[in-house]
Specification:
Strand content: 5-15%
Mean pLDDT: 85
Order of helices and strands: HEEHHHEEHEHEHHEEHEHEH
CATH class of the largest domain: Alpha Beta
Radius of gyration: 23 Å
Number of strands: 10
Helix content: 40-55%
Largest sheet: 6 strands, parallel
Shape: globular
């Protein structure tokens, strides 16, 4: 497990630290820069803890452990891996995969409203769904309500086939898929028929009061300020709301401000409401996704600096 198929785990560690690692009579022998030896030694302690917790070790686990070790933060990985949020109908445990995800899960447990903001692949929606299902199983809530704004991402609803519900379903498909995967087809369909699970566009929330519900608003970057206020004021007694979104992927018409961007300024510091920002280190998809996100962040920062410099030059000329 430690070495991986064709030694790919060990090869990655060697490349990351410029080290040579081999197995010698049941012992790992490490040849590396003297200053790096304590770090590499500690990394192996962390990797063995991951194997003990998961009974497996993927190359993604190794990449993340190496990244956190270089940031002197790897000791917290075991806490995340030991936190099983919920078990799927097939017996697969769903747990945080990164330190940021662990913090996100803890915030959801301890607060009434949590905003999970971050790029694609950081598990914002999936972990929120897992927490909702666990709360429902524990009878902490009576209903799970999942909603998204039906904003057209470069395509027109009018050209989609079918009636209104069939036109809207593609926007909600990721939410259906996650429910299906965690709960299984039979439980999922039974609870949908009873109305204990509801998946609907955000516009359908207007005028309602949602008591004893676990409510998830996904793709919240595509809400307007008015829609965000409408959603947050739907909460009734015994309810919890999780709002997820990626402020770098706005599909709103030009000139419209995102409700997710403005809400941070409005609700900052209010007790029971927490914001967490996940970043590229929390991405649990293909490693190229992390690199793409980092490249976009770098580009955005460069454009921001150029814009500020142009404004400064303009002011100096004036």
């Amino acid at each position: 497990m430690l070495f991986g198929d064709l030694d790919k785990n060990i090869n990655f560690i060697e490349e990351s630290f410029g080290a040579r690692i081999k197995l010698d009579n049941g012992r790992l022998r490490i040849k590396a820069d003297e200053n790096l030896l304590p770090m590499i030694s500690h990394l192996f302690d962390v990797l063995f803890e991951i194997i003990e917790s998961k009974n497996t070790l993927s190359i993604e686990d190794v990449r993340y452990a190496v990244d956190m070790e270089k940031k002197n933060n790897s000791d917290k990985i075991k806490d995340a891996l030991n936190d099983v949020v919920v078990t799927t109908y097939q017996g697969k445990p769903i747990r945080p995969k990164t330190i940021g995800q662990k913090k996100y899960v803890d915030m959801i447990r301890n607060n009434g409203v949590v905003f999970g903001i971050g790029p694609a692949g950081t598990g914002k929606t999936y972990l929120a769904m897992a927490m909702a299902i666990e709360a429902f199983k524990n009878k902490e809530v009576n209903r799970i309500i999942l909603t998204r704004p039906a904003v057209e991402a470069g395509e027109s609803l009018g050209f989609l086939p079918g009636d209104l519900q069939e036109k809207i379903d593609p926007y909600l498909r990721p939410l259906y898929d996650a429910l299906y995967e965690i709960m299984g087809p039979e439980t999922y369909l039974k609870l949908m028929e009873r109305g204990q699970i509801e998946v609907a566009p955000l516009a359908y929330m207007r005028g309602r009061t949602l008591d004893n519900s676990f409510i998830i608003l996904d793709e919240a970057q595509n809400t307007t300020a008015e829609q965000m206020k409408m959603f947050l004021t739907r909460m009734g007694y015994g309810s919890k709301a999780i709002i997820t979104g990626d402020i770098t992927q706005l599909d709103l018409p030009r000139g419209k401000k995102s409700g997710l961007v403005t809400i941070r300024k409005i609700l900052k510091g209010i007790e029971g409401i927490k914001f967490i920002e996940l970043d590229s280190s929390d991405v649990v998809r293909h490693p190229l996704v992390q690199r793409i996100i980092e490249a976009y962040d770098k580009y955005d920062q460069e454009m921001k600096e150029k814009h500020e410099l142009r404004n400064k030059d303009k002011e100096n000329k004036e």
